[in-house]
Design a protein that fits this description.
Length: 251
């Protein structure tokens, strides 16, 4: 489904591959001008931007470490200079996600995840908030995970950070509702992307078998949910966690 985002500017972090790339392409296909943020994969990010541009959209790849305040400020400034004020912020960037037993868990390994799922959203939201408030329009969309409900073992570093990210979403939604800025979170299930290319097939098959709909989702499923929340069709939805996982969690 295509939503009309032709007058909107979107910033998608971690958009050089996987879910981020699919979201950027979808928002571009809906007409939004898209800043394709990347950190370590410039060629992949440029390919995503080129795809959007070839399809008649507007996009540019912009490098920034979204854990660094100065780089976030530059990222937002560069996006605004190229396309105008940011209407849609999709907080997607992530890093390594190691499984760690409790006996080996350290505060540093927890902080590594909090850098992406608390610090980065805070820096990004603060950087785009002023113009959103002035124009009384904004969409902030965090990308979470079903792991918070599933309580995946030996993954507490990641699960706890995702829980904190949901807390940000809910509190910001209540704070910003009076400014006509919505804040929501899309929680994917296990979506096979480049990150999971080396994961055992038997693990994927077992996961898919347990999903009520009987199969894994795709990156396009997540992109569709993001485009909906970015659109005027979702103008009265805020503070919500939208699970896109075939019914694998209920809440």
């Amino acid at each position: 489904m295509n939503h009309d985002l032709s007058k909107r500017v979107a910033l998608v972090t971690g958009a050089s591959r996987g879910l981020g790339a699919a979201m950027a392409r979808k928002l571009g296909a809906c007409g939004a001008a898209v800043a394709v943020n990347y950190f370590g994969s410039p060629d992949k990010a440029r390919r995503v931007a080129d795809e959007i541009n070839r399809g008649g959209g507007r996009a540019e790849a912009i490098k920034a470490d979204v854990r660094d305040e100065a780089e976030v400020e530059r990222l937002v400034r560069d996006t605004q200079q190229r396309f105008g004020p940011i209407d849609i912020l999709v907080v997607n960037a992530t890093g390594p996600q190691p499984f760690i037993k409790l006996e080996e868990l350290t505060w540093r390994t927890c902080l590594d995840q909090l850098e992406f799922f608390v610090k980065s959203p805070v820096l990004l939201a603060k950087a785009v908030l002023g113009p959103m408030k002035q124009r009384r329009y904004g969409r902030i969309i965090n990308i979470g995970s079903e792991v918070l409900e599933r309580g995946v073992p030996e993954f507490s570093n990641y699960v706890s950070a995702k829980g904190a990210q949901l807390g940000l979403t809910r509190s910001w939604a209540m704070e910003l509702a009076k400014h006509n800025i919505t804040v929501n979170l899309v929680a994917p299930g296990w979506i096979p992307t480049e990150r999971h290319v080396n994961d055992p097939q038997e693990s994927k098959d077992a996961y898919a078998k347990a999903v009520p709909m009987g199969h894994m989702g795709t990156d396009d499923d997540i992109a569709e949910a993001v485009a909906f929340l970015a659109s005027d069709a979702a103008k009265f939805i805020t503070g919500q966690k939208i699970s896109v996982n075939g019914g694998n969690t209920l809440h």
